[in-house]
Amino acid sequence: MNSILNFHKRTTKSWTKKKTSVPYRSPLFVLLVSVFTVFFFLVLFTSYSKTSNSLLHKTINPQITQCSRFQALSGGEKFLWYAPHSGFSNQLSEFKNGILMAGILNRTLIVPPILDHHAVALGSCPKFRVSGPQEIRFSVWDHAIELIKTGRYVSMVDIIDTSSLVPSSIQTIDFRIFASLWCGWNKDFTCINDLNARSSLSESLMQCGSIISGVNGNIDKCLYAVDEDCRTTVWTYKNGEEDGVLDPFQPDEQLKKKKNISYVRRHRDVSKTLGPGSESESATILAFGSLFSASYKGSELYIDIHEVQTDQRIQSLIGKSKFLPFVPEILIAGKKYALETIKAPFLCAQLRLLDGQFKNHRTATFLGLKQKLESLKRTGHQPIHIFVMTDLPRGNWTGSYLSDLASDSDHFKLHFLRGEEDLVIQTAKKIAAAGHGLRLGHIPWINGVSKMKMHCPYQRLPDILLYIEESVCACASLGFVGTAGSTIAESIELMRKSDVCRTS
């Protein structure tokens, strides 16, 4: 035992005293190991941070999540959305431009609702004072959701017949179906009347509207929000001119100084700017602001595409979309009123007397009607039947030319169509039952999505009085007198030129 202990003591002592030179304990080696260790953990941490941040970004960023989900549903389909405004005639004009843009860019057009009259305003392009694209897009989204919420939603194609274009020339999708898919809402919200401001659905829809309006900017390969508007851009297509040339109409020096603006209007080819090879081409959704355009001082305010002989497909689309009639239900109702209620040759008088600039030209408006009636009195038998469509309530006729006509029953017989009449109500019911908007077009990838309901027990009947009145005027065999500058008058003239009364 003692020998063992002694051996242990000797061994311990010898190990303690003897020092052996070990290479890995040299200061240089320790330094190298330390540097390598620090570098290794630094690289590992950086890589982990990037990965985790990327995953976290994709997980919590609602825009990325929403876009990924929608792109998975859409199966490669690309869409075009725009923001209509003002009255029905302006909205119809924009709808035609939307068809044209969707055709040029090979995108599925998101068909908007008919907005309440002036619920969304653009402003003045000639005065370079308009709502920006982001603002007007969100206003339109907000109002469209309000129309759904209050049961007043009417699609543009519930009223306008696009059967000559869809699906042969372009693809379309109803805004309600698109919004349901875009927002990831699995239920059918076309019949939901519980969209109060605090509901989760309402909050979700507002967030969806904010994203698609481009408030937070573009989203790679998902959303491209067009920020050009009529202050800076005139869209063209294959017109042979150099891209980016100045438009003849520019803000004058007085306006620049008064409004402190520096806008320059340039012509830009829509296909070169937003089509194949462009930054926006890969985006699933291309979102315009307003697509309103009109001639002004020899220029177009926003879209100058009237003839494209080098592209027969688009030339055909321009020709087909120049005049889009009302749906058959409305045309038949107008013709029926002419044949069964008026029952005689008649003159149509469209008298816009209250709205905007027209209230200042009442005398000139009545003068044109008076001259036409004097001419008819000399050539035909009496009384002369007159179908009157006007925004002036009968209680305000006192002292006006309309009052004179109404009191002269020997020479004139006036006819009016009212919203509460059975013809209007029955036609509105037929349109609601037809559901043209939700039935329009055929998109293969949407087959798996549950059908939207066609009837809602609380839904209000669409307001179609104006459209039937226009259809009646299209059948006026004694002629038409319209209000100068009124887009409604222009629409009626186009209907009469297209002879829709005979073909309906």
What does this 3D model show about the protein?
With 504 residues, the chain is an alpha/beta fold. It has 2 domains: 62-321; 328-503, Rossmann fold, CATH 3.40.50. The chain has 19 helices and 15 strands. The strands form 5 sheets. A 5-stranded parallel beta sheet has the order 5-2-1-9-6, with helices on both faces. A 4-stranded parallel beta sheet has the order 14-13-12-15, with helices on both faces. Strands 3-4 form a two-stranded antiparallel ribbon. α14 (401-407) links the parallel β13 (384-390) and β14 (412-415). Mean pLDDT is 84; it is low at 1-24 and 43-60.
User: Percentage of helical residues?
Assistant: 40-55%
Judged by helices, strands and strand pairing, the structural class is alpha/beta
The total of helices stands at 19
Strand order of the largest sheet: 5-2-1-9-6
Transmembrane segments: 28-48
Keywords: Membrane, Transmembrane, Transmembrane helix
Protein name: O-fucosyltransferase family protein
Organism: Hevea brasiliensis
